[in-house]
Amino acid sequence: MFKLTPSKKRTFFFIAIGWALLLIGDRIGELRQYQGSFVAMYALAIASIILLTGYSGQLSLGHSALMAVGAYAGALSINNLHLHPAIALVIATFVAGVFGLLLGFGVARLSGPYLAGTTLALAVSLPTLANQFPILGGEQGVVFDVGLPPARFGENFSQYKWFFWISTLAVLIMLWLISNFVSSRYGRTFRAIRDNETAAALAGLNTGRLKVLAFAISSGMAGLAGGLLVMLISGVSPSAFPLSLSFSLLTGAVVTGVYSLRGVMLGGLVLVAIPEIADSLVTRIGGSEGFTATLPGFLVSALLILAVLFAPNGPGKLLHIFKKHS
Amino acid sequence: MKRFSIVSAVVALGAMVFTALPAQAAEPGLTSSEIKLGISTPLTGTAALSYGKIPGAMKAYFDFINANGGVYGRKIKLVVRDDKYLPTLAATQTTNLVLKDGVFALVAALGTATHSKAYAAASLATKKVPDLFVNTGFSGFGNQAKYPTTFTVLPSYAMEAKIISKFVKDKFPGQAVALVAQDDEFGVDGVNGFAAGSLTLASKTLYPQSSMTDARAKALVTGLSAIPGKPVVILFGTTDVTALIFKAAESLNLVSKFTWIAGSVGGDANTLLALGVKTTTIDGAIAASFFPDAKDTTDEYVAEFSKINSKYNPGVTFDNVVLQGMNSAMLTVQALRAAGKNLTRAGLIKAIETKGSTFASAGLVPLNYSATSHLGYNGYWMGQLNAKGELKPYGGTLSVVTTDSTNGPITPSTYMRPSIPKNGIPTNS
Amino acid sequence: MIKLITAILTALTTGAIYALMSTALVLVWRSTRIINFAQAGQAVLSTYIGYEVTVRTGSFWVGVVGAMIFGALLGAVIDRFFMRPIFKRIQSGPILMIAPVVATLGLLGIIQSIIGFKWGLTYQSLAAPVSTDGYMLFDRVIAFSPFNLLVVVFATVSMLLLTLLFQKTNIGLALRASAHSPEIARLSGIKVDFIRTLGWALAGAAGGLAGMLYIPSSYLYPNAMDVLLVFGFVAAVIGGLESLFGAVAGAMLLGFAISFATSYVSEKLVFPMAFIMLIVVLLIRPAGIFSKKKDRRD
Prior knowledge:
The complex is a heterotrimer.
Chain A lengths: L5 H22 L2 H26 L7 H17 L5 H23 L4 H18 L12 E2 L15 H25 L1 H11 L1 H6 L4 H26 L2 E2 L6 H14 L7 H22 L3 H22 L4 H11 L1
Antiparallel strand pairs in A: 1-2
Helix pairs in contact in A: 1-6, 2-6, 2-9, 2-10, 2-11, 3-4, 3-5, 3-9, 4-9, 6-9, 7-9, 10-11, 11-12
Chain B lengths: L1 H19 L13 E8 L5 H5 L1 H14 L8 E8 L4 H14 L4 E3 L4 H10 L2 H4 L3 E4 L15 E3 L4 H15 L5 E6 L2 H12 L6 E5 L6 H11 L7 E5 L2 H13 L7 E4 L6 H6 L4 H4 L3 E4 L10 H13 L7 H19 L6 H11 L11 E4 L2 E5 L1 E7 L5 E3 L6 E3 L8 E2 L17
Parallel strand pairs in B: 1-2, 1-3, 3-4, 4-5, 6-7, 6-8, 8-9, 9-10
Antiparallel strand pairs in B: 10-13, 11-12, 13-14, 13-15, 15-16
Helix pairs in contact in B: 3-13, 3-14, 4-5, 7-8, 9-10, 13-14
Chain C lengths: L1 H31 L6 H19 L2 H30 L4 H26 L16 E2 L2 E2 L4 H23 L1 H11 L1 H6 L4 H23 L11 H14 L4 H21 L5 H15 L14
Antiparallel strand pairs in C: 1-2
């Protein structure tokens, strides 16, 4: 009998999830496949925030810009370099990671609000750069076309199922790598820095270097999510990465629970489901034009506040509260 | 003899019965009583300032038609989804329209960055969903290989820029020209058009839309005032920024220093006045248009649409945006009628290709739909605003010209538009 | 020459508005240790109220008073009934950073939806109380009007008053003490909770004033102050988040940098300049220009 180490358990877990998603993907319709792909993509982007904030204690308001970096890198690889989409996604991850590394060197010394302000400024200014360089396609952007599903899957294999397979596979692989990483020695050192940076430094950890590393990895994850996003919308433009995207990711992270990667799928689900529920509610209720236009935004914001009020430490802790009262 | 007449009677009766039944079956969004159309457009956000009125205007016209028999008895239902002018939302909302709401066809989709993503994401080409009368001047949507089911309606920004270029060269030959354009699809497509029109620019300023403030506008206008003579300033951006620049010029007492030309997107006089621009500033400004002016109640289309607007869209002032929306709605109704009682998606596309160029519309330039062209209007006339915000033909006589989006010539047009159907209700087939 | 004068004047006017926003943000930061993104919504909503008052009374100044009173009340209510319960529930750690940010974002969304619902989404105009035509200088008109002068004067006077409040009054002392060391302040008999709410009220009033001074040169709509929030935040960070003086200095610095970059190089540099300024300042002084080293704990 071989020993069931935690890492092997983790691997089996991910493979099992993968199979389950594969089977589910076959049963649900095209709309759900498309939405499912978004859930996966958002889950990865939220995971990048959790790694940076929950595990290494740095707050970033600029992850939309990091996603944009990955997105453009991926789109250009396909469009200008004519590389295979899978390679393009790897490039997206890598380029965003390198960008994050360089950025990290600049900002890792900054704490709390200073880091937040810098990343905020990054988020609003980076997309405007796309309009400076013609190669980035201006507002029309660059097309990102993963092509049709391979012919051997048959005629009934829809584009959306293909998206679903690519997104979930990419996200599962990345999350598996990351969860291995956080369970390793590095993960422990990150948490040490998060909890008490001074003590960690006294204990001999090179806090600066580790924070930069966290930034780089988080950026790489965001870059991959960005590449997946543009695959799903078939192209990249500066306006696809507004500041509100950064805020949505933070929302997802809070709803998931910032301390653990375990619930990221839930966070992704919330980001996709809530606007949809709000939309359906509005069509059913009807009402004046002012009402229907503003209600979805109101509901999303209200949910956000409720989530922070009642489960600021994540749904896991919410269950705790229920247990206590029952 | 008798048997023959019985058989022919039976056949005739059968034919009547079966043609009276509208075709249903495989076409989504279609029942015997309803045609479901979908629109993805900004309802909130800054783009809604310029375009927020369109869905309401279209719905008002559709309500009017529904109250008058619908399209061969079917009522039109318009499903509106807010995409906030963001590409990701446009992609998901358009996909929702197709997969969730199950619409028969899309109408009046808005924006380049938004719709180019939405078209691909919702697989409109593979699913052969008609994409009618998109609300954008991006010349790329005329590419039938890439957008096989799309029909444009607005002339492209490139066409507009070319026509303005020629106008400036003809009427203001000695003066320097300054271009102030938005650093996005509006501006850049236009900038290329100005280049194609070989207009030499003394100054070219591109600004990010969300960053233009009163202070920046003043600095901009001050900078332009250094150009000698009486320069022609072309403003190619949205209405809110156009208004800011006008107001900055007022503050600096520099309005009369320039000849102002406002692009179609930002040149709606009604909105400019509502945003605080003085009537003395508007007076004399030049704008390009392809519609009659929305204040021109002598125009039969304007008169009829205004009537429908006050009855079915109460509380909304009739302006150029509402005119545009209702016009597209009327084109849609004619297209649905032309496709016949056995309405299918393929039939709708074919109907526009074969009969679209004869549709009645308010446009003073021709519609160019054919099997090889999905382009709508392709021309403009140059007008001058007066203090009341009315656009009158420049120099007194209406002079309509047509062109293409690349290097083709600009030719005067002798197009006479069809009269409006009686009471605004199309009866074409 | 005229270009230089214009660049300086536009820097002054933009800097003045940024200063009001950054002051509001610093006031909240010092009292509660969070960045209040809802400030953009609070300021706009206060301005809508000011607009309604102006329309009804015919006086811009009464409207300003109305906006500031409403802003103060709104700020107090938000602190007492919204932020306090949130802080009670959050344990320490990174969630302390991120959850309040998210909460204020949610609040921003709610406020903007309410505005959209009540007043509609179209742009309104708020008329300035004095002329917006530029002054004459060497017989040409410059990009500085009586209204711009008004804005600069008001912003300066408000800063002075606030500084006087903080440095010379007992309440000011209580505000500073509660921000710096809440436990010790409490032990000294200061009602820390009340003082904190007061800080929010002051911030709300500052935001209302900022809105009333800014909107006449722009338009009134739910998202009117979103971009200002970004610049105000950047200005506050540049200045060091620790002092009102830093907030104002940061704002003026940012105003000048952006004005000169856009006038002399390119209009497109508006946002990138903010980022560049921030990075440059923080590389040299990671806690902002006017921070004192020992106050780096957040």
